[in-house]
Design brief:
Blueprint: E1 24-31, E2 39-47, H1 59-68, E3 92-100, E4 103-111, H2 114-121
Antiparallel strand pairs: 1-2, 1-3, 3-4
Length: 129
């Protein structure tokens, strides 16, 4: 009798990537004019799918803002909220790096000082950490 005998091995299928496009970000604030040379002072993580999580203090609200602006970070920076700030030049840079709805993002903006930064992001949650 000829032939082969043995145990058939099940073919493993790759697990699906997921039902949602990944959205996982690192948001940071640093002292300096440019993101590449700033001295980072604090950073938080933010994951928005499948649920809001991370070290961001208001993860759910931050994810809701990002969804509402379709991940357009410039829309999260507003005019001064009426807060009085000095004109002192001590630049602060805010950066966002990671993946938003499956696409790579790297964004930064610079404010004249920390008071100007707080005044410009005071109306929202995503950049107020």
């Amino acid at each position: 009798m000829s032939g082969t005998s043995g145990t058939a091995l099940a073919q493993s299928k790759a697990a699906p990537a997921g039902l949602y496009a990944p959205s996982s970000l690192v948001l940071a604030v640093g002292q300096g004019e440019e993101a590449d040379t700033a001295t980072m002072q604090r950073a938080v993580t933010l994951t928005c799918t499948p649920k809001a999580s991370g070290s961001h203090p208001s993860a759910s609200a931050a994810c809701a803002e990002l969804l509402a602006t379709n991940g357009e970070f410039d829309q999260l920076v507003g005019e001064s909220s009426g807060m009085a700030c000095t004109k002192e030049w001590k630049p602060v840079v805010v950066t966002v790096d990671g993946v938003w709805q499956g696409r790579r993002v790297a964004w930064s903006t610079t404010f004249g000082n920390s008071c100007e930064m707080r005044a410009s992001v005071a109306e929202g949650a995503a950049l107020a950490f």
